[in-house]
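Subject: two folds for Thursday's group meeting

Dear M.,

Sorry for the delay on this. The cluster queue was jammed most of the week, so I only got both jobs back this morning. I'm pasting them in the order they finished. Each block is the input sequence followed by the predicted structure tokens. Could you check whether the formatting survives your parser before we put anything on slides? The first protein is the one we discussed after the seminar.
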Amino acid sequence: MPLRYRLSIAFFCLALLGTSSLVELGIISQREIIREEEQERLQGYSRALDHNIELQGQWAVSLASSFALNPEVAGALANQDRYRLVQLCYSAFIFMRRHYGIMQFNFHTIPPRNFVRMQMLYVFGDDLHYRQTILDAISWRKETFGIEKGITGYGIRGVAPVLNKGALTGTVEIGFSFGKPFLQQIKKQFDVEVSILVPDENSTAFTSIATTFPDPVKRFDPVYAKVLLDQHTELLIQEIAGVPYATLVRTVKDYQGKTIALVEFCARRTETLSVMHHYRTLMLGIGFLGMVLSVGAIYLIARYFSKPIGEMVDFARDIASGQDVRHLKASPTGELKILADALEDMLKSLEESRRKIKDYTVNLEYMVHLRTRALRESEEKYRTLVENVPLVVYRLLGSGKTIFINQFVEDLLGVPQERVLGDESFWREKVWPEDRPIIWPLMDHCLNEGREFKAEYRVARPDGKLLIVLDHALPVFDERGHVETVDGFLVNVTERHHLQQQIIQTEELKTLSEISARLAHEIRNPLVAAGGFARRVLDALTEGDVNREKVKIIVHEIGRLEKILEKTLAYLKPFQILPETSSLNELLIQVLEDQEAVFRERSVSLEMNLSANLPLVPLDKELFRALLRTMFYALADICPQGRKVEVTTYPGDNVVHLDMTVRGTRVSDDEIEHFFYPFTSRLERTEVLDLPLAKMIIHKHQGLIDLVREDPDRLILKMSLPHRREPILS
């Protein structure tokens, strides 16, 4: 048999064996990968179930809390007025059940007993000591939520305590269905069949209490009992009603951590099996084609090398031309000797080539070493620069996880590098809670859409100091255009922000002075003339004259205008302060002791929360005492009877803060805006400073003062003073 045929047969067998092995390994690998992908996908559905339970629980408890905080609802429950509660809440329950799937809306009294069920108005009065969420809400006086069974079945329930005038009067409960409507949401989200299964008495069969399948299901597989017993997750590949499914079975626990049922996630495998069959056929076809081509190529190569030996020898000698030929010790004859000589020549040429390649490799290694050392030195210089720059320099992954941050973060934010690198959500969580609704969407746009992020927001240090930082981040994209990393830096702009606020208040005071100067100029001349004539007319009239009383009124009103003019001139009169290092807390205690009678007269109480480690500040004690008395008079005038004024001091970044809080007041936005304007305040006591002059005193101390509304019925007078004085800006 010719050599080319023998080679072809041998290589055909090897190609057949190799192709079959590769195809089989490919099919096994594909099946395993698909199984792992299905398991991961089903695990994702399981996590989505937990997330939806958590989300609906938080939703339910937030709704319950909103009703618990309603004073009318709290009063009705305290009075056990069932009809009033139905009036207040039944329409809201119908709306929430129709649009959001709320299935339970209950009020409970203490001890735990159902008072009103909005979903079953005529069923009430049953004992609820078996309801742990209600017991915990009453015991802890805080909101609880979780899966729990009631008279209407299992539900995702949120319970909030109801307080009336500080006393616990009962609880309010709102719950979502933990049944088919809840499972339909999962199916709509992920196109997966979900069932909730409960065991029979022997735990050998499991029947659905809720399912997204068209008909109720029943499972007899021992794996379900094993999952219930071992409290773990199991993946099954099975057919249900002739349809192949990948099934994940897990337990579900109620609020007390007890296993109440199994949850089954079933994902169709029809499309997956179709893809597997397609690729199996494709792999077999490609393998067979490769085998045929390999055999054909081997046949041609064998024929090529067995027939034109003379051409191969000439080709080999051409490669080795110009070199000395070293004879082999063996002396074959015929064409084999020629082939041996040609191979010897090729060997010499190959050795020469290897020598040259070796020399090139040595030189290449040396060059690579030099370039690597230069690159390392460049990286060290860059790292030294980044670590010593007075900025927080960071790098994030596209997921928001911090992968690099320099040491300056410890100086600026007081947080160790290790904690920042270990906290995946540090970039977002460091934002002050009040700024998050504005800043977080901008951060999400940067991570998800690749937009440049640049914003100023507040950050709280662990020691309680509040900083204002400028955060500037630029995304870096991969080859597919997705955000791969985000590089950015943080700058402390607290001093600049404080300076801006001081400049703004300076301009406000300047405007106030200009208004007062113009007002005094316009009033002075006509007021002097009118006052002089009015007094002359009054002196000329006899006691019995009918016009004397009218002229007296004119003289009185002119006198009021003259007092206003005197106040205006007082605002315009420059004054100096004589600061000395003082304790703000001690001044507050002294002034509050003096003003105790004023607050008692108005039935207003005081609550003081003074920081023990408040730094000393430079103050003009006399002017500042008068200023504090003015502030307390003003707040006492707007505080309703029976309420209290909260006085709080705390340290800041190079400043100390003083907050005076009033609750329950009804002051318009216009009154807040013009609180420090002349002739607009409710304060009419001549023995204390006017509010505009008080604001000027704060400005002279290089501080800031403002009246803001935090909530609809909560006003805060915010004041900040620096630790040290700087030259005042004009």
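Second protein, same layout:
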Amino acid sequence: MPLRKSLLVRLLAASITIAVCSVAATAWLAARTTTSAIQQEQGQVLADDAQIYDTLIGYAAAHRDWSAVTPTLKRLTGRTGRHITLTTQDRLPIATSGPAAPLPTRASALLDPLRADPALLPGVKADGIDPRAVGPYRLPKAERAELVGRVDKVRACMRGAGYPVGVTEEPSGRSALVVGGDNSTQRKASEVCGLYVLDDPTTTEKRALDRLNTLVAGCLRRQDLGPVSVDLSFAPVGKDGEAVQRCVDTARREQLAPYVAPAALLFVATPAGSAAPPGFDLSSANTGRVAGVAALVLVLTVAVTVTVGTRLVRPLRALTDAARRPAQQHLRVPVTSDDEIGRLAAAFNDLAERRERVEGQRKAMVSDVAHELRTPLSTMRGWLEAAQDGLAVSDEAFVASLLEEALLLQHIVDDLQHLAQADAGRLRLHPEPLRLRELLDHVAAAHRGGAETAGVTLTTCIEDTPVLHADPARLRQTVGNLLSNAVRHTPPGGTVTLRCRRAADEILIEVADTGTGIAPADLPRVFDRFWRADRSRSRRTGGCGLGLAIVRQLTEAHGGTVSVTSTPGTGTVFRLRLPVRP
């Protein structure tokens, strides 16, 4: 075998290619170390900047000035390692987290809770006002306690009604309920438990809303716009539009301005003397180490590939040797693993066993065919030689005997031809609509004379059934084979019954006899070719052992099934199930 076709060589080439690619990728990744470190550092810096901005905006929203911000700056510096400085918009110092240092040319951000940056504070709405800036809307303790009591009552009602509900607290101190489910569920919950009562503003909120509505009205009058009303959602009720929304936003900033810290510039810098991210030094020493590691990887790859490849090739060679053995030698391959190779070996052994079984069946069939053909031919030859020698008279009985043997021989040949056509898939069916009662009555009538001669009573029990699409000739042959088989194995005085009825979407045809029955061990072989209950070749019960095999082939050709049940000494029942097609 050429080396290029060897599984071992191809596996080795693939492994070396993978190893070379792996080494190259490792070297490239090592060269990218500095870039990755810088990108990670930048990502951390952005996260720290966002944390600093959020914390200081929250401080400004809750305080009227920056006088007590220094402890907050130091805590942020301890967590992030960044130097933080606050100045006025004129760059006058307000507070710093460490020793004073020259300020950068450009500020990191503007700290204004009334005009927050949505890029650094995703929770801010389109108006830019931090929700933590509540100003005159902050509730005193008494109103908070009263609102908590109302919330608890409504929550208890909802829980009692089976609605999922939770409680949240807004920055102003207002407690609110969060109802789970879709919009319809929330509407039902609001109607059942009066959820709307929680939307009523408290005394403090009413005063603040009255002041806000006054500011909004003044702004709208200056722009010749009609009045609107603003509720606790801070959305205009009555009119909509950019001008109205601008007035609402301007009025809110004017109302909140006395309660928040003035706008300030934020400067965030890396402290002097901090270490830079490590880089990758591709010096001569490092290059040598990389080359050494690469060579070691290649050597290990080759060694592992040779070891694994040898283990893979050995069972394949055993399979090849076994397959090349002569047909007479049925060699088995040992199955030593449960991988693909092991399953291939198991499949090969199964194939070899099936070949042995088929070969045995072929030999047995050839022997049976030879015997079945030899018997009538020997009889015919004996009679003809006797007539030639003058020992037999060519009278009517002589001709009848020869005709009987010729018909038997023709019957065997026809049966073999039917089976051969079925095996080759050339069995032709000519289905047409059939009335089963008429067809089965004809088949029973044709066999009733033979049954009476044998002393067997043939009865029928045929119900009206739907029209069945089937080949009438093949169906008569199938039922006729079953009837003749039943009569043949039923002793004088016995009964053979032909029944037909509909069972769900199938037609059930049964042939039952009160004959000798079939042993349980023989039931799986009833439909095998040349199998007979009389295992001797004496033809005591007649038949050649092909009738039931033909019954199975013809039934399956119609899309049906055939089965048998039997009790030795009691009788046997053969059942044909044929599908009813529209």
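Two things I noticed about the second structure. The first strand starts at residue 83 and ends at 87. Residues 367 and 469 are 39 Å apart (CA to CA).

Cheers,
T.
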